[in-house]
Design a protein that fits this description.
The chain has helices spanning 20-32, 35-41, 46-59, 81-101, 109-121, 163-168, 235-241; strands at residues 10-12, 15-18, 65-68, 76-79, 129-139, 144-150, 156-162, 176-181, 187-189, 201-212, 216-223, 228-234, 248-253, 259-261. The strands form four sheets. Strands 7-6-5-8-14 form a five-stranded antiparallel β-sheet. Helix content is 31%, strand content 32%. The protein is α+β, with helices and mostly antiparallel strands. Helix 1 packs across helix 4 and helix 2 (35-41) packs across helix 3 (46-59). It has seven helices and 14 strands. The two termini are 32 Å apart.
Length: 264
């Protein structure tokens, strides 16, 4: 017997916000006002929780979680009204989703094989930075194309990809796409009027969190447009650049380090 099970996932347009695990995290943030407590309650690491929040805030039409500074407790986190409405919507949809799948008890072997194939075509990315945007420019080349995305906050992300990839992804002016950038590909520089770099992507922003490790540090940067970008740098670089909360920096990414994905 083949049993059909479904996983409910919310989207904003063509942008995936997440499923039950992320909704559970949002719910606990609303109950506790703490990222640490919420992550512990849902069995998620603190770093993983922040990654999920950054991804949701970046992909949503407006922030779902905001940080609260000051106060006797030293600050915390809270859900926005948009975040609260998302939780309510998910609960209602989950009930409809459950009742829908209760109608299916068995499937023919042929259908089971088809579903298994579909599952193998789906993937999840390890890239920490996922930035949703819209294609505003495509410069065609003989071998490679240069594709430019505009993010909701106004920043532009430039990616270099093969002509075949541009065609396979169905990219054209106005298309929605997601820029995937590994945190190890994000360099950090200090603002300098005389700074000249060959990297096409240079994003001004402010450091919002530095997590130190034995060798490397995890640095979160809030871009001027509101998106959050994560970079992995050495602890020596953190010290040399004086990276700390509220320090103004520039996140630098080569166009060749940007991977584009679509929901097509």
């Amino acid at each position: 017997m083949f049993k059909l099970k479904g996983v409910l996932s919310l989207q904003s347009g063509d942008r995936a916000l997440g499923g039950a695990d992320r909704i559970a995290l949002l719910t606990k943030i609303g109950e506790t006002g703490s990222i640490t407590a919420a992550a512990r309650a849902v069995g998620m690491s603190y770093k993983g929780a922040w990654d999920a929040i950054d991804a949701m805030n970046n992909l949503a039409d407006e922030p779902l979680v905001t940080r609260v500074t000051g106060g006797k407790g030293g600050g915390g986190s809270q859900l926005t009204e948009r975040g609260k409405r998302l939780i309510e919507a998910f609960a209602a949809l989950e009930d409809v989703h459950r009742r829908f799948f209760e109608q299916f008890e068995t499937l023919a072997d042929e259908s089971a094989a088809d579903i298994k194939l579909i599952r193998s075509l789906m993937f999840r990315t390890s890239a920490r930075n996922q930035l949703a945007g819209r294609v505003v420019n495509i410069h065609k080349g003989v071998v490679n194309d240069t594709v430019e995305l505009e993010l909701p906050g106004g920043e532009h992300v430039v990616a270099t990809l093969t002509c075949e990839s541009t065609q396979d992804l169905g990219l054209e002016i106005g298309s929605e796409a997601i820029a995937l950038i590994k945190s190890s590909s994000v360099l950090i520089a200090l603002p300098d009027e005389g700074m000249r770099l060959s990297a096409r992507n240079q994003f001004p922003g402010t450091v919002v969190q530095v997590t130190m490790g034995a060798v490397n540090a995890d640095v979160r940067i809030r871009l001027n447009g509101g998106s959050v970008m994560t970079s992995i740098v050495t602890t020596e670089s953190v010290s040399a650049l004086g990276l700390a909360d509220r320090v103004t920096v520039v996140a630098v990414v080569k166009a060749s380090s940007v991977i584009l994905g679509t929901a097509r």
